[in-house]
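Lab notebook, bench 4. Still working through the backlog of constructs that have no structural model yet. Next entry is a single chain of 194 residues. Request: give me the structure tokens for it.
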Amino acid sequence: MAMACFLFYAYLTGRVDQSAYILMGIWLLGGFVIQVVVGVLELLSGNKTSGNVFLFFSAFFMLVTALEMIFNYFASMNGWVTGPRLSGWAWLPLAVTLLLWTPAHFKSPLSLLLIVLSLDIAVPLIALMDLQVVTTDWVPVVPGYALLVAGMLGLYTAAALVLNNAYQRMMLPTGTPLALISIPSRDATSPYKY
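Model written out:
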């Protein structure tokens, strides 16, 4: 996830241009493989929130975006006309889904919640940029830096998970969950239990 965030930061802030699309696509394909495996493992371990988020990100933000970037690279080389608006329509429900799933992360470690909140800034703006609703020159910088923050927090959270597990104690704190929303527990027969 951090790798993808850093790539998009570089692109959105003008550090690389469309000539980097094919390499970005290849790196995202690698990220897809890791995220789909992690998503399945999370679901198998009973963590439905993380499992669904990882599968969601692996499919759309990694696989589809990788294929789109590779296609756009060849389209630019061959003079094929493509427009970003269709991608904007695809990113729009992804942004809404991410926003609607955010409250589930109030039960996650603080560092993970901060990643999601950073993505809550970036993804809707990317959708609006692709839809050409927001077109000013400074707009890509905002999701770019939000993704950089998400990427750095992702690296820290991953390091904390690995080190804390390896040493079986708190080496790097991830922060306690905010759990601002308290919902009464349902029994096992409840139709709301998944």
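Notes after review: The CA atoms of residues 128 and 134 lie 6 Å apart. The chain has six helices and no strands. Flag for follow-up if needed.
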